[in-house]
Structure to design on (376 residues):
């Protein structure tokens, strides 16, 4: 079994690390975090250098990891302008791909993925945003979405809504996905500020008041979108795991630099048991999380996704990020809270929440193993 990445992926990883070191300056990271302002110029540069290339998924994965290693907020912002586009790649019509997907892939427009309702959260089937069919075949969209990445800056969204009442005990039916343009009448986006972390990204609440959706904007088959969303999560959760890996590795980088400074000052704490154990424990968890993530990615990128492997990678990498920054910040004490470790601490927690909470991922693993007869 070969654990080495191909040469082209290694080259992309190096290129991403150099880009992040050059563009994600301390001043830029602080400015966009404190001002909660999306770094559009960095996004444009990242696109021009080829980091947003869905034809090179391994390249995107390692770029995401290296970007978040330097700064999670800027890192995610740089590679998220095509968020949700896999939905159109897999299930969209030729018309939709031409009108909506191509401009995003050319760096001309941005997309968003709108699933979460304030009253549903991880319960995708419990959403309340509603589509009502008109006599001419179009739809009226009413409702709201919350915590939508790119919500205030995307040109269009791939949105999940209920188009018909579900049969008893089959709540996942009757859900339809449509393309909603931010310029459509009745659409409104309100940026959410004061987030715990990832403040450089744009997050918004979306509201829809009788927004007319043309029939040609329905993605795939009406009523089948729950399956589309679950397919998308099998993709996106692997990239979230890569984000978490980057955060954890970045925290470890900062710990080793801190220990080097302590050592240079003559402090015995730099080589004490507490420091050595912390380095070993964090490094081991990162390596385990990376193996889980790369294994899940290898299945996905060969078009044979394994939901168990994906959920294992997502929850373990997310919890590793939180573990790493918490333990390291505790060790650094006052020396840590006055550095960018404070921002890493805030940015890490969302890894356990978005694209499926850690609890949801664990339920998926346990249920699927039980179905396979492997959880007994």
């Amino acid at each position: 079994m070969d654990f080495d990445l191909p040469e082209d992926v290694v080259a992309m990883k190096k290129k991403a690390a150099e880009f992040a070191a050059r563009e994600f300056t301390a001043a830029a990271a602080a400015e966009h975090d404190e001002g909660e302002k999306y770094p559009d110029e960095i996004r444009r540069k990242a696109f021009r250098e080829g980091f947003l290339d869905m034809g090179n998924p391994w390249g995107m994965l390692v770029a995401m990891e290296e970007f978040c290693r330097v700064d999670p907020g800027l890192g995610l912002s740089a590679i998220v302008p095509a968020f949700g586009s896999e939905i159109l790649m897999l299930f969209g019509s030729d018309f939709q791909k031409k009108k909506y997907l191509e401009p995003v892939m050319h760096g001309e427009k941005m997309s968003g993925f709108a699933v979460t309702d304030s009253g549903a959260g991880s319960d995708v089937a419990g959403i309340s945003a509603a589509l009502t069919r008109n006599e001419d075949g179009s739809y009226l969209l009413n409702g709201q979405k919350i915590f939508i990445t790119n919500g205030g800056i995307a040109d269009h969204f791939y949105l999940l809504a209920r188009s018909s009442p579900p049969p008893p005990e089959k709540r996942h039916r009757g859900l339809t996905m449509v393309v909603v343009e931010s310029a459509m009448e009745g659409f409104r986006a309100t940026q959410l500020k004061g987030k715990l972390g990832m403040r450089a990204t744009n997050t918004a609440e979306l509201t829809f008041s009788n927004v007319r959706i043309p029939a040609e904007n329905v993605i795939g088959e009406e009523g089948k979108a729950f399956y589309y969303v679950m397919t998308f999560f099998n993709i996106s959760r692997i990239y979230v795991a890569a984000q978490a890996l980057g955060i954890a590795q970045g925290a470890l980088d900062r710990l080793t630099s801190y220990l080097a400074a302590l050592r240079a000052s003559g402090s015995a704490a730099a080589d004490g048991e507490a420091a050595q154990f912390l380095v070993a424990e964090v490094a081991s968890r990162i390596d385990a999380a990376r193996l889980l993530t790369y294994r899940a990615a290898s299945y996905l990128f060969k078009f044979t996704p394994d939901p168990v492997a994906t959920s294992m990678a997502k929850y373990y990498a997310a919890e590793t990020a939180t573990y790493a920054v918490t333990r390291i910040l505790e060790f650094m004490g006052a020396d840590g809270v006055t550095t960018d470790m404070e921002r890493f601490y805030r940015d890490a927690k969302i890894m356990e929440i978005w694209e499926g909470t850690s609890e949801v991922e664990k339920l998926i693993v346990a249920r699927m193993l039980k179905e396979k007869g492997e959880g007994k």
